[in-house]
Amino acid sequence: MLDAANIPQVLQDISGTAITSPEAWEANRERLLSLLSREEYGFLPAPPERTEFKLLDRQTDCCAGKAVYEKWEATVWVKDHSFSFPFFGVIPQTATPSMAFLHLNFRNQVPDFYMPTEEIIDGGFAVFSFGYEDVTKDNGDFSSGLAALFPEPPGKLALWAWAALRVRDHMAQREEIDQENVAVVGHSRLGKTALLAGAWDERFAFVIANESGCSGGAVTRGKQGERIADITRVFPFWFCENYRKYAGKEEELPFDQHFLLALIAPRKLYICDAQEDIWADPAAEFLSCRLASPVYELYGKQGLMAETEAPVLNKGYHAGAIGYHLRAGCHYLSRQDWQQFMAFLKAHRN
Ligand code: GTR
């Protein structure tokens, strides 16, 4: 049973003293990042010694000429070893810089059924993306792909997040992009990845996790559907080894998932769910947003603004710095979700 009283409070330092100022929160923030890294995801590797971006393809007739399509290859060097992966950009042909998404995609195709590209362009946004398995396979093999560059690689979620930071490095070089308004977005396992990327890299002004659920946006204690025992049995390689010891022992975790959400504060965060996706557990995600909100309040901002304990179907909770919606249907990243993301970004543009 979900019960906020059983969930650790985020505004406490290591000695249990209440955190009451942004300065005290920031002093404690690194400790929380390390805690999550040590116990759950593994540590984010240092940035590469060198990165090169090579343009592989460019088309100016994309979306009926409203946008430019580009295919790039990123090559990263870590201690004399290199690894390359492709990524894509679709950028509106406008005179002023565009707000932008970095979409962590399941596939390396543009457009894609999880990425309604023309609609995103029509909304006034650029969208960069990569196919996550071009970075490292979604399995327990750490001997190939990006994983092979690191002697002690973290879990796969952290490796995908590291690759996202390299695409963000590229976006940072682009004048067509409004650097103050870049969102990282992912669905499900890649929603968990988006949260990690956002926690680790403050260049993401917006972080969007769609149906990220267990070990993502949802609190673990009292959660329905997927539990740590389920996720570490089927996908142990997403995490570091330490995480397995919490299977069936959620109450021993020295944190809960709203700590991850709180690490994004005071930047904008967006969590969303599908009504039929009990595996992710919308109620546990909504509660997580509520429990992360006090950190936003330290900064004089409202986090999740909601009057009810449970989310109302199809209502866009867009007023606070933590946005949320629950849509009808099943586990999916739909165009309806994208419409909500675009509305939230426009409403909260920096
Ligand atoms: C499921 C997994 C979830 C979620 C999902 C997905 O099988 O149990 O945590 O990440 O995959 O990525 O689609």
What report would you give on this structure?
This protein has 350 residues and is of the alpha/beta class. It has 8 helices and 9 strands. The protein has helices at 22-41, 117-122, 156-172, 189-200, 228-234, 258-262, 282-298, 335-347, and strands at residues 50-62, 67-78, 81-92, 98-105, 125-131, 177-187, 206-210, 268-274, 322-327. It has a 9-stranded mixed beta sheet with strand order 1-2-3-5-4-6-7-8-9, sandwiched between helices. The mean pLDDT is 97. The site of beta-D-galactopyranuronic acid has 6 residues, from loops.
How far apart are the first and last residues' alpha carbons, in Å?
Answer: 38 Å
Number of helices: 8
State the strand order across the main sheet.
1-2-3-5-4-6-7-8-9
Global morphology: globular
What is the percent of helical residues? Answer: 25-40%
How many strands, which pairing sense, and closed or not: the largest β-sheet? 9 strands, mixed
Q: For this structure, what is the CATH class?
A: Alpha Beta
State the fourth-level CATH superfamily: Alpha/Beta hydrolase fold, catalytic domain
Mean pLDDT score, rounded?
97
Classify the beta-strand content into a percent band: 15-25%
Please report the total strand number as a whole number: 9
Number of domains in the coordinates? 1
The CATH topology label is Rossmann fold
Topology as a string of helices (H) and strands (E): HEEEEHEHEHEHHEHEH
